[in-house]
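Quick one: structure tokens for this chain, please?
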Amino acid sequence: MNFNYNTLKVTLQKETRSIEVAINRPEQNNTLNVETLFELESLFGWLTGHLEVNAVVLTGVGNTFCSGFDQNELAIMSDEKLQKYMVRFQKIVMGMLSLPQTIICDLKDGASGMGIELALGADIRVARTTARLDFDALKTGWVPCGGGIALLNQLVGQSIARHWMMTSAKVGASELSNRGLIGTLYSEGEDVTHQFLKTISRQAPVARIQAKRSFLESVMPEASRGFEFEAIFSFAAMKTEDWKKDTATENFTSARELARELKQRNNQPGPGL
């Protein structure tokens, strides 16, 4: 396959039969746009039929993994397109869980917003000792829609997940490691992913794939239900368009304002009345 992408940089590593996929939008802090989602979808679709690929390293060009959605692009989308975008993103994260390859996410110096959710779809997460994850979704008017609640609950427990999300926490590498969200920390210049890839390349392929499927089966019923509710509440929150606002000059929609608007809509006469 010709890996000719505009927003992804894909590198084959023949020695370990693996590929590195780097989000290649460093000028935009590696934000995700529509093209990125289409390209990830295309690549993951290709991987499902190529079992000879043992592993995938998902990372970002530069020092940051991913800083979430491209807000400027989303701001000009219709509600219908925006919902389709969110559904596509959710399917990509869920698809990562079921790919036959072992997926390693190298967060480098960190991620924020929906970039964190993308990392949750990986089997293994590594980061620099200087890394920080910024759980800023609520501060920017978003409700997690790609595992930021469902998967995070399962990985670190609901108490910690709730604390990080509801306080818009900026969590450092040490705590992320202690809570089990990051498996390995490394110093700049270390190449821990290559060591993992070498180990994975020596594993029995069928045993590796079946082990991943077994892990998936143990979490999928609860995760699927969580994803379903994330979509419902995320779509509902989009209606306020708070995520389009510049919080330095604009106020978020109050709960009372939203309730009043919904009541007015419900009281409007239907067509033909």
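The domain at 8-236 is CATH 3.90.226.10 (2-enoyl-CoA Hydratase; Chain A, domain 1).
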